[in-house]
Amino acid sequence: MICPRDATPLLEERMHGIEVDHCPQCNGRWLDHHELDELEATRTKDEDHRSGTIDYARRDSELNCPVCSQPMTAFNYRAYNLELDTCEQEHGFWLDAGEDGQVRDIIDDRVRGRNRAVKAEQAWDNFLEGVGGGMWDSVRGFFGSRR
Ligand SMILES: [Zn+2]
Ligand SMILES: [Zn+2]
């Protein structure tokens, strides 16, 4: 496999006990689809803390999957300000340098203040639903009434 950022051949590496593919050029890492959960499991064995939606605000990524070469999807991991890339064919996840540490920090955050994290995710869900429906109607209604 080659790095989706700079096409350098990826090297196998053990990270927190997980076999990942590491780019020696940019220090990014490719995790197989199930390995993101394994990375989360290095911080908590409690599945409740690892449940829920992880891919918020999905959008096109500029990176291609190193397995199938198809364009990947970028998303905000667990509604945090952390952008990861994933393959629609569930080949895996691309983590830029240092993002594996951020994933672990976010899981720690959920363990410490689960309710707070869940509220942030629900607020995001409500916002997205609002954009899809009622909110735009009220925005249009507002401008319409001023004409
Ligand atoms: Zn690279
Ligand atoms: Zn793929």
Amount of helix? 25-40%
Query: Which band does the percent of strand residues land in?
Result: 25-35%
* Unreliable residue runs: none
Total beta strand runs: 7
Bound heterogens, unique: zinc ion
The radius of gyration over CA amounts to 18 Å
Largest sheet: 7 strands, antiparallel
How far from one another are the termini? 58 Å
Q: What structural class is derived from the secondary structure elements?
A: alpha+beta
Strand order of the largest sheet: 1-2-3-7-6-5-4
Give the SSE string: EEEHHEEEEHHH
Tertiary shape: globular
User: Averaging pLDDT over every residue, what do you get?
Assistant: 87
Q: How large is the count of helical segments?
A: 5
Number of domains: 2
Structural description of this entry:
The protein is of the alpha+beta class and 147 residues long. It is 39% helix and 27% strand. It folds into two domains: 11-112, no CATH class; 114-147. A seven-stranded antiparallel sheet has the order 1-2-3-7-6-5-4, covered by helices on one side. A hairpin with a 6-residue loop joins strand 2 (18-22) and strand 3. Helix 3 packs across helix 4 (114-132). The radius of gyration is 18 Å and the shape is globular. Bound molecules: zinc ion (ZN) (2 copies).
